[in-house]
Structures are given as structure tokens and as C-alpha cells.
Protein 1
Amino acid sequence: MDNKEAIMVVLGKRLRIVRNAKRISQEKLAEYAQTDKNYISEVERGLKQPTIEKLYTITQALDINIEDLFKGIEEEIQSDFNI
């Protein structure tokens, strides 16, 4: 797995953790973020690379700061993927 793929997997995992902690379904998050449930699912699984605008919309829908999503991401990638 390359660095880009690892970033997408970790980013997706973080989004899923926040969404689940807030007890929001993928369907509701998709509605709030004005996108499709399948898109949310693919982002959470690291299969889609969201644009910065779409990522911002998703984080706003989750009521979190986009910068908080990236705090410590390098360490998590290294820990999870040895990159």
C-alpha cells in the first residue's frame, strides 16, 4: 500500500469513528453533506479520495473541525502501515 492509499484508509477510518460516536447513519450523513450514501461508504473504506470541498462539507455535517481530522495522522499511518 502506498502513502496515498494509507492516508485515505486512515482518513476514512477517522470519519467512520466520528460518525458512529455521534450516532449518525451513513444515510443521514450523506443527506447532511448533500451527497450519496455510497460515496460516504467509499470514503470511509478509503476507496474514494474526497476533494477538500467535499471533505469540508462532510466535517461540517459531523460538526467537527477539518483540522482535527488530520491531527496525528502521520503517526497513525506509520503505526498502522509502517510507511
Note: The chain has a mean pLDDT of 94.
Protein 2
Amino acid sequence: MAIAEDFTYYLADFGVAATLDGAPVRVIHEAPVGAGSVGPFGMTEVRPTAGLPTAVLVGDPVGKVLQIGSTPYRVAEHSADGTGWSTLVLEASA
């Protein structure tokens, strides 16, 4: 039996308003400072992420624009954890 998660209260408490490809969504935005993957020249690379319910995604979000406040990001990676939650790895968008 699958467990259906309800992220309503989590998003209400910790989420921020955003738009994904022009559609309104609520996300948990994280712009971590510190540990991350090792990028070119051995430097630590940290990229911002946005978490949201997988059910709100229409199709593959990779390459789409996620606007959080006045900052546009391009979705570089999408990972669904199997519980109904997805994490989008973001890159700066011009």
C-alpha cells in the first residue's frame, strides 16, 4: 500500500511563491552555502535547489524557467524521491 503524502502544511510554513514555465507553484527554495560537489579546478560547487510536490509537475521540468521572486533560474536536473516529492537543481538563467 502506497503512502500518500500531504505537503500542504509544509509548503504553507516553509514555501515561497514561484512560477515554473509561467505556472504558479509553491516551492521550498534552498541556496546552500558550504559543502557541495567538486567542480572544475577542485573548487566546491554548490547549486541552489527547489523542492515541490511531484504531482504539480507537468512533463519534464528540465530546461524550463523557475522564477523565484525576481530571480529566474533554469532547471538543470530533476530528481523524484518516490514519496511524491521532487527536487529541482537550479542554475542561473540569463
Note: DSSP finds one helix and eight strands in the chain.
